[in-house]
Structure formats: structure tokens, C-alpha cells
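FAQ

Q: What does a record look like?
A: Structure on top, sequence underneath. For example:
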């Protein structure tokens, strides 16, 4: 691979790479605002200016202050070039440090902050703002401008999810380019010139496509903020765990941002993965974090004489064992919302140990997603389940639907049910026949399956347990636990082992790696993906 030199370091590049892209691929950051690896080049912020040492210097005539003469004198300086726009050539030598470059970086910073309000204490971007970071790295000076800054609109509603602060905006146009180039919706544009310019929404429109939260994510400063996240948490208190989105079969890679003090998840952000989601996520996917804390099932539930009674988890496990040990024709319901590991242990208990031969898959249908679900040509897969492929592979092949299960129960072909998860493609009314047989359900949230169960045992969410999902392309992706499950609650696979013990069936897995090691289907999926 050809190479070039950046600050003395040999950096490889592919033909067509710009200086900044080649450096970024190698993990070296050249300061920038308007450049984004997933967007076209605008080259409008000038923060990425570098000195190209190997080329014939382009001498710019300038006036410089001469201390001896106490006057300005005519001289020249080497013209700096934007690293985001200049393509690398073999043997090129580039300096992104040194007096000339650092002076330019300081000057660009000063220019960008001339009218910028000192909002940091109340700005949601504080702690992850490029203006703060680069001010410290490249300017570190107090404002020289002592006149009133130009005032512009603040807290402008752009749409249902995003608020705009024009005074903080540095006109990098990343938000416009994201809407144009990734979403294909020219809903944002710029108006006015110079220090009066601002981002505007197309007349008669709102910023309301399926990827609006990404505009907040690509904004390098606090000009666009998400209504959902603003004023909820300070980012320096948050930690991040690598996750995989629950929203659909694409399996976008995420960062799960949580506050370790409260063991609470505050937001999901895209984790770059060029093969799966590049740099993006959809709004619905980013909002799936709400299920980690809302509509949770935190105690056991037992149906007694038609009424649901909350009971301690232990009592629910005991009640589950009683249901399962009596069953002769057990239905086992795998879950397209649960991990391979959970589904695998469900199969062990339900099929191998309890002899269940009627196998089904509980999966959301596009119509059963609250608000509906539609795939698109960007990221969103038509299947709103994160792990249909994994659950099916672990179960050993195609599974019947929960509608089939309802029909089998109505026809008397099933005498008990062991099901995983809350999700189903049918409503509670459509699944009403399931309430006619004893039904043990393991679930983290309230949903149609929990509402027709006889016994519900609470389990952890995917933020509270590590696991594996297989996406629609057959890629097995592992994610890590972010927060602790509420006291006493365990992952579904651990809970299934506990229930197994109560019915005298020993499943000898103590740790997640042991479960994984016993899973040939998943191993195959991992191999196919890598
Ligand atoms: S709102 Fe943010 S992303 Fe859009 S132009 Fe302004 S600073 Fe850039
Ligand atoms: S496209 Fe699917 S996997 Fe990606 S963020 Fe949206 S819902 Fe999640
Ligand atoms: S990052 Fe190069 S000009 Fe903005």
C-alpha cells in the first residue's frame, strides 16, 4: 500500500483518500468540524488546515507586523491547505503541527467563537463539544472581541425531535448534508450570509423523517439538541457499553450510554461499523432504550382465579416448576427479541429435558409494532425483530408462529406453554386462547405474551445482560451488559436453569462462555459472518 508522511509518521492510504481520511483510518485525528467520514466534503470550516511540505510552496503575499520598524511590512507566507479536501499522493509530506499550522488553528477557533455564546454550563453538548475540545487544544485565549455578539434565534423547534440554537451553530452544514445525502430529504438548508446565516427548515415542512436524531449526532457543537436527551444527563457522568440495536433485523451497532450511579441508560448512539450501519441509526432504533426502563416487569406474576397477583420472583419460579412438571404436550415458544444464549437454554429445558415437541417463534410483525413499522433502503429492515435468524438457527430450523400456537391450543393439541419474551405478532385478543392452558412466560417487559400467561417470571433486558443477535445478513454480533439488572433479577438463560433445577433437571452452565461454547448453530453463524 502506498504511504505518505504526516508529522514524520508513515501513513498508508488508498487511492482517492484525502489527507484527513487516511489519517482517520490510521486513528490519527486532524482537527476538523465540517468533515465527517460518511458525508461529502464541504471544506467550509478551515479547521483542518495543514502544511504540505513536499509540494512547491504557494506563497501568499501578506502584511506582517515588524517589531523593529514598528510597522507592517510586505512579506509572504506558505498557503495552508484543507486536509479534508486534498488527496494524498505517494511520498507526500504533511505537517498538521508546527507554528504556522497552530497559528491558523487558533485563528479559526477564535473566528468560530467570535459570536458564540458562553453557553457551556447549560449546553447539552458540553463534555463532547469540538468547540470546547479544540479551544483548549488550539486557542486557550480569552475573547478579544468586546462588542455585543450577533444574536440569533434560540430554542427553535425543527420538528418533533430536534431543537436548534442558531447562536451556537458554526455552519459546518453536516446536518444539511446528512439529510440530503443519507436520507435523500432536502428538508434543511442555510439562509443569509456571513455572521447572520443560520440553518432553516424547508417552508411548510418539519424535520420529521425517520433519521432526525442523526442530525443531532452529526452536529459537532450544541446547535442541534435532541428533545429526548436535553437536560437529562451530563455526559461526563455517562459510561458507554457496546450494544446491538433491538429495533430491527439490521442489527445496528450502538453505544449504550448509561449512568453507573443510577444504573440507568440515557441514550443510544451509533457505533461505527462499515459493514452494518456505517455511522448511522434510525430514530426508532435510538428510542428502543426506553424499553430498558419503561413497562418493566420487576416481580413475579401469577394468575389466580382470573386475577393477576404480584408475587416474589421465587414464588413465580416455584409456580413455573409446578406447571411444567405436569405437562405432557408442552409448547416451547422461542423469541426473536431474545439472544441466542437465552433461546438455546430455552431449547435445552423445553425440548431436551421436558420433551416439548411443539416449537414456535414469538416475533413482532410490522403491524404489531406500536405506531407501525416500515423498512427502507437506508438501514431499516422490514423485519422489526433483532434476532429472528439467531433464534431460528438455535432452535434448529423454521418455527411455527404464535398464531399457529393459538390455533393449536384452541384445538387441544397443547397442554402447557413455556414462552420467552413479551413480543408477539398478535394482540392480546388474538392470543386469548393461550390463557386456556397453564403458561409460563419469562419476560422483561409487559406485552401480549405476558398478558395471557399464567405465571410470569421477570428477566433482564438486553442492556442488563451480554448476548448475541444474528442479523438478517447472518452476521452474529455480540454485545455487552451495560447496567445491572434490578435486584434479584437475572438473565433469561440463568432463570431457565433455575426453573430447570426446581423440576429436577440439571442444566450445567454456570457462565455465559459455557453456554456459547455449547452452541454449534451460533458458532456456525459467527464463522459465516467473519
Ligand atoms: S446545526 Fe450543527 S451540524 Fe448543522 S450546520 Fe450548525 S453546527 Fe453544523
Ligand atoms: S435500522 Fe433497525 S437496527 Fe438500525 S437503528 Fe433502526 S431499528 Fe435499530
Ligand atoms: S474539516 Fe476541512 S475545512 Fe472543515
Amino acid at each position: 500500500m502506498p504511504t505518505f508522511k504526516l508529522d514524520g509518521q508513515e501513513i498508508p492510504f488508498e487511492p482517492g483518500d484525502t489527507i484527513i481520511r487516511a489519517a482517520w483510518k490510521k486513528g490519527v485525528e486532524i482537527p476538523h468540524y465540517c468533515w465527517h467520514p460518511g458525508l461529502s466534503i464541504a471544506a467550509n470550516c478551515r479547521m483542518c488546515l495543514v502544511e504540505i511540505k513536499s509540494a512547491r510552496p504557494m506563497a501568499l503575499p501578506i502584511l506582517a507586523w515588524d517589531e523593529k520598524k514598528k510597522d507592517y511590512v510586505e512579506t509572504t507566507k506558505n498557503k495552508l491547505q484543507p486536509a479534508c479536501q486534498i488527496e494524498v499522493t505517494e511520498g507526500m509530506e504533511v505537517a498538521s503541527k508546527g507554528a504556522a499550522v497552530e497559528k491558523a488553528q487558533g485563528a479559526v477557533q477564535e473566528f468560530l467563537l467570535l459570536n458564540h455564546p458562553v453557553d457551556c454550563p447549560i449546553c447539552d453538548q458540553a463534555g463532547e463539544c469540538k468547540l470546547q475540545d479544540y479551544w483548549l487544544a488550539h486557542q486557550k485565549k480569552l475573547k478579544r472581541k468586546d462588542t455585543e455578539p450577533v444574536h440569533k434565534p434560540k430554542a427553535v423547534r425543527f420538528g418533533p425531535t430536534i431543537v436548534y440554537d442558531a447562536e451556537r451553530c458554526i455552519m459546518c452544514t453536516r446536518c444539511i448534508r446528512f439529510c440530503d445525502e443519507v436520507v435523500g430529504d432536502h428538508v434543511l438548508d442555510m439562509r443569509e450570509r456571513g455572521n447572520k446565516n443560520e440553518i432553516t427548515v424547508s417552508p411548510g415542512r418539519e424535520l420529521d423523517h425517520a433519521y432526525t436524531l442523526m442530525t443531532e449526532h452529526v452536529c459537532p457543537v450544541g446547535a442541534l439538541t435532541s428533545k429526548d436527551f436535553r437536560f437529562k444527563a451530563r455526559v461526563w457522568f455517562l459510561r458507554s457499553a457496546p450494544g446491538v440495536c433491538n429495533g430491527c433485523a439490521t442489527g445496528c451497532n450502538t453505544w449504550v450510554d448509561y449512568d453507573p450511579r443510577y444504573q440507568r441508560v440515557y441514550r443510544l448512539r451509533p457505533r461505527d461499523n462499515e459493514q452494518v450501519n456505517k455511522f448511522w441509526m434510525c430514530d426508532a432504533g435510538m428510542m428502543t432504550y426506553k424499553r430498558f426502563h419503561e413497562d418493566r416487569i420487576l416481580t413475579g406474576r401469577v394468575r389466580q382465579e382470573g386475577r393477576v397477583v404480584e408475587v416474589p420472583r421465587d414464588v413465580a419460579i416455584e409456580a413455573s416448576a409446578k406447571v411444567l412438571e405436569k405437562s405432557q404436550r408442552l409448547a416451547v415458544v422461542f423469541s426473536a427479541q431474545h439472544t441466542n444464549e437465552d433461546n438455546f437454554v430455552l431449547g435445552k429445558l423445553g425440548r431436551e429435558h421436558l420433551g416439548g415437541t411443539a416449537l414456535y417463534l414469538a416475533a413482532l410483525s410490522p403491524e404489531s409494532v406500536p405506531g407501525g413499522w416500515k423498512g427502507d433502503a437506508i438501514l431499516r429492515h422490514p423485519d422489526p425483530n433483532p434476532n429472528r435468524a439467531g433464534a431460528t438457527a438455535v432452535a434448529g430450523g423454521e418455527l411455527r408462529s404464535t398464531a399457529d400456537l393459538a390455533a393449536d391450543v384452541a384445538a387441544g393439541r397443547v397442554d402447557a406453554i413455556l414462552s420467552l419474551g413479551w413480543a408477539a405478532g398478535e394482540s392480546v385478543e388474538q392470543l386469548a386462547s393461550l390463557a386456556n392452558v397453564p403458561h409460563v412466560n419469562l419476560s422483561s417487559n409487559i406485552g401480549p405474551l405476558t398478558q395471557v400467561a399464567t405465571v410470569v417470571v421477570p428477566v433482564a433486558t438486553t442492556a442488563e445482560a451480554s448476548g448475541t443477535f444474528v442479523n438478517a445478513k447472518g452476521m452474529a454480533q455480540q454485545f455487552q451488559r451495560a447496567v445491572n439488572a434490578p435486584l434479584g433479577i437475572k438473565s433469561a438463560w440463568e432463570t431457565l436453569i433455575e426453573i430447570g433445577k426446581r423440576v429436577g433437571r440439571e442444566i450445567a452452565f454456570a457462565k455465559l462462555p459455557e453456554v456459547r461454547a455449547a452452541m454449534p448453530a451460533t458458532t456456525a453463524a459467527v464463522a459465516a459472518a467473519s
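Q: Is there anything notable about this one?
A: The chain has a mean pLDDT of 95.
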